[in-house]
Amino acid sequence: MLRTRVIPVLLLRNKGLVKTVRFDKSKYIGDPINAVRLFNDKEVDELVFLDIDASVENRKPDFELIKNIASECFMPLGYGGGITSFEDIARLFAIGVEKVIINSTALLSLDLITQASEVYGDQSIVLCVDVQKNIWGKYQVYSRKKAKHSRNDLITYIREAQDAGAGEIIINSVDHDGMMQGYDLGLIQKVVAATRVPVVACGGAGSLVDLQKAVLAGASGVAAGSLFIYHGPHKAVLINYPTQNELKQLFA
Amino acid sequence: MTAIIDYGMGNLGSIKNMLKKIGYASEITADPDLIRKAERLILPGVGAFDKAMTNLEDLQLIQLIKEKAIGGTPLLGICLGMQLLSEGSEEGVLPGLGLIPGRVKKFVLPAGYKVPHMGWNTVDYQRESLLYANFGIFEEARFYFVHSYHFVCSEEQDASGLTEYAQIFTSSVEKGGVYGVQFHPEKSHKFGMQMLRNFIELVPC
User: Fold this and answer.
1) Which of A47, A90, A125, B65 could be disulfide-bonded to A117 (CB atoms 3.0-4.6 Å)?
2) Can you tell me the distance from the alpha carbon of A172 to that of A158, in angstroms, rounded to the nearest whole number?
3) How many domains does chain B fold into?
4) Does the model's ipTM exceed the 0.85 cut?
5) Is the preceding omega at residue B116 within 30 degrees of 0, hence cis?
6) Residue B205 annotated among the catalytic residues of the structure
7) Shortest CB distance from B189 goes to which of A74, A98, A168?
8) How far is A247 from chain B (nearest CA, A)?
9) What is the pLDDT of residues B61-76, one digit of tens each?
10) Is B189 labeled as catalytic in the residue annotation?
């Protein structure tokens, strides 16, 4: 039986790890390499690193840091942030990244997704979409780079990206980010209904039950930051991850 | 020395990283001399079947890999590298290496099952295999898979492992010193480490 993938998402800023709330209030968490080692010990399904400043600052990925992360990663590794060219993607694969995650660049053009998926296969090219509700409650694609809503219609954009060669979609709710009060299940259902590729839910998980709810809403994988970083009511920093038995029971 | 054959198909660094972690040197190479001298070969790969065979042909490695394998050098194909051991694939028109009888087919799955088969899954061992020797130490071993095509053996005894994803499919193959695994041991934590260790320490070369 295929297991549901449970994926810690770690945010990079100034070579350190941070955690945000609603894409704001970034708090320093620790050293990325140390975190990878801890997640290795916990035998996590997959790890995702997102450099949240690279595109905003028009900067390339920090290849040296990613290389160090990849060399310690004995599970699949996804990386996103500052990827703007085919050369960036080729370099990331060469240093041991399994999946490249495209966000800002795709808002302008899907050509890079097509070009990369033709060479590396759809399964290794992931689209990440940040979604925020506007004041009328309509889901809008959010651009972190421009700090505002993009004009792309959410469902049209996702379908076009899928046709362009994105083999997986991470759907990240800006409103739920860091809140630990559950995923936006309506958003997950809406996106899953419109796509044929796996959808990974991100943003809002505060408990294992939240993961279960996202899977029932149709997510193929469930990603979380705070849940695997914080512990207890006072949110002490403590890298954690459910055991295999807990996960088995959760998704049985 | 273990040679990781570099023919332009995917992520080889992670295999070298894991071998290093378990204490074995390896060389990522397309150099026929190095490959000829290697004690063991690993044929990795992600991507399209025909592109892979074309690249191997362009590097003049097809005959060399076959000779080495038939001559008794242990060979481990991983993911696409496993599929290349077959006689051919539905994904392309070119013949495979033909080291293990069988063909590669695309998944045809009921509604609700996504292709590729991506994520962690278990393997039912079908026979005594050095690759899975001592796997009894694990409560339950699991491996990371990403693939849309699967190997269909002509000879039942060549299928060393089966996995379930809507249907039962062959997830590892073995014939003599030729081994193939559909999953990625290099991305499968201690389970993959143990398998690579077995390939190096237990398979005689």
Assistant:
1) A125
2) 13
3) 1
4) yes
5) yes
6) no
7) A74
8) 12
9) 999 999 999 999 999 9
10) no
